[in-house]
TrEMBL record:
This is Galactosylgalactosylxylosylprotein 3-beta-glucuronosyltransferase. The chain holds residues 65 to 322 of 322 of the full protein. It catalyses: 3-O-(beta-D-galactosyl-(1->3)-beta-D-galactosyl-(1->4)-beta-D-xylosyl)-L-seryl-[protein] + UDP-alpha-D-glucuronate = 3-O-(beta-D-GlcA-(1->3)-beta-D-Gal-(1->3)-beta-D-Gal-(1->4)-beta-D-Xyl)-L-seryl-[protein] + UDP + H(+). It is a single-pass type II membrane protein. The record marks E154 as: Interaction with galactose moiety of substrate glycoprotein. It is found in: Golgi apparatus membrane; Membrane. GO terms for cellular component: Golgi membrane. It comes from Amphimedon queenslandica. It is an enzyme of class 2 (transferase). The active site is at E211 (proton donor/acceptor). Belongs to the glycosyltransferase 43 family. Keywords: Glycoprotein, Golgi apparatus, Manganese, Membrane, Metal-binding, Signal-anchor, Transferase, Transmembrane, Transmembrane helix. Pathway: Protein modification; protein glycosylation.
Length: 258
């Protein structure tokens, strides 16, 4: 099998960054699929911490960086105090787009056939078998993701590789959301991406609409998707590593050392 799974991971500086990346490195290393890990840091330049880490991870990788401009909207403190609205923003948009650009620069519609693209955030947990599933993608494949949106798992319900319905907290509440799945719940063939050179992630999309809006650039109905996995076989979980309780001075030391 000559197929390559391109795994796109945005990452940013925090105490648990290396621990999260290590967990993902281990899952990728155990997989039998051929993986190319595209790690995109949310920073002006690639940092020594991540480049040293990647040099010791046995997975073939590419290291890029782009800083998210204006992480907080203008007057965010005003909104928080007086309007009581949180300063919410999508995360990892510019980083994912940079990785897509890297792929578009490197591949063409002539040599894209063996490539599959997957967006793996750095803090989720991935079963190594997930990447074998991803490598079988023909056009766009989908599967359930554990612990999303207040339910045990969210995603497609499959019958014979076809999506029969969606299982999601939002299906009743937001019927317009045609593909109620998490970022970790789909993979797309590289040729699809190259055939739509303008398809990207966009900061102006509303909250919770990132995956649906992205997929809508390639497909319009659930019948076009390849349904993988089942609810009894969740292979990826949307979790967050708890921030360790470390004194302020030691946190500073950690950042100075790495
Ligand atoms: N991320 C980033 N810059 C930030 C915050 C997050 O690059 O300022 C990355 C993060 O490392 C992760 C992805 O963007 O790979 C999604 O972030 P997060 O998991 O916090 O978002 P959630 O899925 O929980 O909404």
């Amino acid at each position: 099998n000559k197929r390559i799974v391109f795994v796109i991971t945005p990452t940013y500086k925090r105490l648990t960054q290396k621990v999260d990346l290590l967990t993902l490195c281990h899952s990728l290393s155990l997989s039998r699929a051929q993986v190319k890990w595209i790690v995109v840091e949310d920073s002006k330049n690639p940092t020594p911490l991540v480049s040293n880490f990647l040099s010791l991870c046995p997975v073939s990788s590419v290291h890029l960086s782009v800083r998210t401009p204006h992480k907080k909207p203008k007057l965010w403190w005003f909104q928080k105090i007086f309007v009581k609205r949180s300063s919410w923003r999508h995360r990892g948009i510019d980083q994912r787009n940079m990785a897509l650009q890297w792929l578009r620069d490197k591949y063409s519609t002539q040599n894209c056939h063996e490539g599959i693209v997957y967006f793996a955030d750095d803090d989720n947990r991935y079963h190594y078998r997930l990447f074998d599933t991803i490598s079988k993608t023909v056009k766009i494949s989908v599967w359930p993701v554990g612990f999303v949106g207040g339910i045990l798992y969210e995603g497609p319900v499959c019958y014979n590789n076809t999506v029969t319905k969606w299982k999601s907290w939002a299906v009743n509440y937001d019927p317009e959301r045609s593909f109620p799945i998490d970022m970790a719940g789909f993979a797309i063939n590289l040729c699809q991406l190259l055939e739509k050179p303008l398809a990207n992630f966009n900061n102006s999309w509303s909250r919770g609409q990132l995956e649906t809006e992205f997929l809508h650039q390639f497909v319009t109905s659930k019948e076009e998707l390849e349904c993988r996995g089942s609810d009894k076989e969740v292979h990826v979980w949307h979790v967050k590593t708890a921030k360790p309780s470390i004194s302020k001075s030691h946190q500073l030391q950690h950042f100075l050392e790495t």
